C-alpha cells in the first residue's frame, strides 16, 4: 500500500487551520517542529484541561485528500490545511488502517498510527454544517469519524509535497482505529 503527500501544514499558534508549507520537519517523539500540537504530552486544549500529563498520541494529524472531493460533492469547499491537518495524503485509505500501522514518509520519517481524529465543533465554525459531514453513523448506529487519523513520530525527517508514503502493517490480529 502506498500513496503520496499532497501538502504539509503547520502552525505555531492555536488556530483551526494550518498554513501550507514547502516542507515540515517531523521530530521523533514530539511531532511537527514548530507546530503548537508538538510535544511529548497532550497539547490539544480539551485534552490538556482533562489531564495535561497524558501522552500525546496526536502529534501528527493526517487527512486523505479524497475527503475534500467527497465534501465538495456536498457543497463544501475544503483545501489542504484547512481542517488543521499536518499532512494531506492521496492514494491511501487512512481510515481503514489498523492501530500501529507505520507510515514511512519521504526519505526518513516514520509515523505510527494511533487512532482516529475526533472532530470538534470548531469544524462548524469553519463551515456551518461541516461537522455532520465528517462525523456520522453507519447502518448499525455506530459513530463513523472521517476527519483523518492521528499518529506519533517514531523517526524524524523532513517531508514535502510529492514525497512517497509507504504503509507497513503491524502483525495480525489488527486492531481497528478508535478515537484518540
UniProtKB/TrEMBL annotation:
PROSITE patterns: MOSC (PS51340). Residues 18-168 form the MOSC domain. It holds the Pfam family MOSC. This is MOSC domain-containing protein. It comes from Kitasatospora putterlickiae.
